[in-house]
Here is the input.
Amino acid sequence: MADYLVIVESPAKAKTIERYLGKKYKVKASIGHVRDLPRSQMGIDTENNYEPKYITIRGKGPVLQELKSAAKKVKKIYLAADPDREGEAIAWHLATALNIDIESDCRVVFNEITKDAILESFKQPRPINMDLVDAQQARRILDRLVGYNISPILWKKVKKGLSAGRVQSVSLRLIIDREHEIKNFEPEEYWSIEGSFEKGAKPFDALFYGSNKEKIKLTNEQQVKEVLAKLKGNDFTVTNVVKKERKRNAAPAFTTSSLQQEAARKLNFRAKKTMMLAQQLYEGIELSKKEGAVGLITYMRTDSTRISDTAKAEVVDYIEKKYGKDYVVTEVKQVKKQTNAQDAHEAIRPTSTLRTPEELKTILSRDQLRLYRLIWDRFVASQMAPAILDTVTVDLENEGVQFRANGSQVKFPGFMKLYIEGSDDQTEETTKLLPVMDIGDKVKSLEIEPKQHFTQPPPRYSEARLVKTLEELGIGRPSTYAPTLDTIQKRGYVQLDAKRFVPTELGEIVHQATMEFFPEIINIEFTAQMEHDLDKIEEGIKGWVQVIDEFYRDFEPRVKHADEVMEKIVIKDEPAGEDCDNCGAPMVYKLGRYGKFMACSNFPDCRNTKAIMKLIDVKCPSCKEGEIVERKSKTKRLFYGCNRYPECEFVSWDKPISRPCPKCSSLLVEKKLKKGVQIQCTNSDCDYEETPSQ
Here is the structure.
C-alpha cells in the first residue's frame, strides 16, 4: 500500500511520475479543474465582496470521489498541478475539496518531467501560494463579469450565440482596425533606379542613392528623367568604400509567444496545434520499454528566456564536441525582460540536449518531431557564438549622380550553422558578394533601369503577427493566446484568408456595439493595465477584491445603460438572385456563425439552405457544361468542383485556370509549392509546367 498520494492534472503525466517516485507513491490525475463557477448562472455575489460560488464540474464527480477514497488510505497528499497561476488554483480547489491544510507543505512544482527534476521537487514541498491563486481567481471573476453581462445583451440586441471578453474583444479590435487601415490606405508613388555594373568582368548590382552631396528620394517620373539626363557614358568612378565587421547574435530560447510565432512561420502550425503538440512533448512520450514515457521539453507556458545552469552546462558541452570551442558563446546577450513578464520559470527547451531529433525520428509522429526539432535547434543555437559578417558599402559616381552597392559575406557562421530565426517579412540573411574595389577605380554600367513603385498598405494579421502584437501590448498571457484566437474564429467574428485574419460582417457589428457601450473593454491601455493589476495581486501588492471592485463600479452602470438604450440590430437578408430548389420561393443571403450562406425565404416552412459558391471563371473540363466553383471540405480545406454536382463529380484540390495547356490542351492548375505557385498540366502523360511565381 502506498504511503503518499500525488495528484497531477493529466493521466499521461501520472504514469511517468509514478514510475520515477517508486512504490511508496500513488499518482492520480484530476484531469484539470474539479471545481469551477456554474455555467448556468453568473456565480458571483456582487453584493458580498464578489464571493464566487464554486461547484463540482459536471462529470467530475466520479473523479473527485476516487481522489477522496485514495486520500483516506495515505499518510500525506501532494498537489502537483502545473507550475503557473492556473495550476496553483487547481491545487487550491483540490485542497478545499479534500480538506487539505493549504498552509501545510502540500504543493510541489517542477518545470520538466524528468527523474532528477521530479525527485528534487519532492525535497522542496511548500504551502499553496494564495497570491497566485487570488490572481487566477481575479482573472476568472473578471472574465465572468464581462462575459455574463455583455453576452446576454448581444444575444438580445444582435444574435444568439455571441460573446464578448476582455482579450478576445481587443484581438477583434486590432484585426478590424487593421482592415480599416487597409481600406483607407492611399498608395503613394515612388521610383527607384536599378543599375547593373561590372568590374573586371565581375557583375554586381547597385541602386541610385542621390547626388554626391545628399540622399535623394524619387517621387515621380520627372525626377527620374532629370537624373538619367545627367549621366554621361557608362563609366562610373568608385568614390567611397566602407568595410565593417558585424556581429549577429542568436535569438534566445523560446517563450510561449515566440514558439507560437516561429511554429507558424516555419512549420505552418496554428497556435492551437502548436500548444497541443507541446503539451504532448512536455507530458511525456514512450521512448522504450526500459525508459518508459519521458518528458522531452520543459513547461510550455512561460514568458521567460532563462536557462538553468545544469541545462546550460550540458548544451555547452554538446556544442563544443559537435562544432568546436569557437562555436560556444562566451557571453549570452541579455534579453530585455518584458515589463509584464512573470518570469516564473525557464524558457522552453529540451529536457536533455543529448536527446537529439535524429534519435527520435522513429518514435515521434511527424508533427511532434518537427516541433521538437524546432525547440531543440532554437535552444542549442541560443548558446552558440554570434555569426560574424563582413559588410561592404561602395559608392559609384557619374557626373554627380551617385549609386550605392551593398554586399555582405558570412565570415564565421556561428549559430547560423544550425538555425536562423524566421521573420514575418520573410527576409533572411543572404550573402551578396561584391568584386574587390578601391577608391578611384573605374566600373562600367551595363544597364540602368528606372522602376515605378507604389507604397503598400500594412499587411493583415497572421496568427504569428497577432500573437506578437498582443504580447508587445501586454494583453493576455501565454496560456490565453491560442484559445483567444480559436474563440474569435468559432464565433464567426473573423475568417482566415490566405492565413491572414479578415473580419466578418458579424465581427464588425459586435465590435461596433461593444465600442459604443463598453469602450473600456476594447481599450488597449485599459486591458493592459488590468493585466498589470493581476500581476500586482500575484506579487501580494494588491487585493483581488479591490481590483475587481475598481472595475465593476464603473462597469455595472454601463451594462444597465446598454440594456436599456442599445437598439436591436436587424441583420437584413439580401436577395440571392435565385429561387429555392424545393419550393420555388426566393433564396436570400443569411449571416450565420461561419459567415454568409443561402437560405430559403420561406423559412420555417422550408428549411432549404445552400453554401455560397464562388465562381472562378473556368468551364468544367469533365462535363463541358458546368462552371468550376470554389468549395470547402468539412475540415475547411479549399477544393474546386463542378457546380452541376452531383450530376458531374469533377473535383480538384488545385485551382484550375481558364487557359488550356499549350502542349496538349488539357486542364492547367495552380499547384502551391514551398517556393511559390507553379502552373502544371493535369494530364499525366504531359510534362508541361511553368516557372513558379512568388
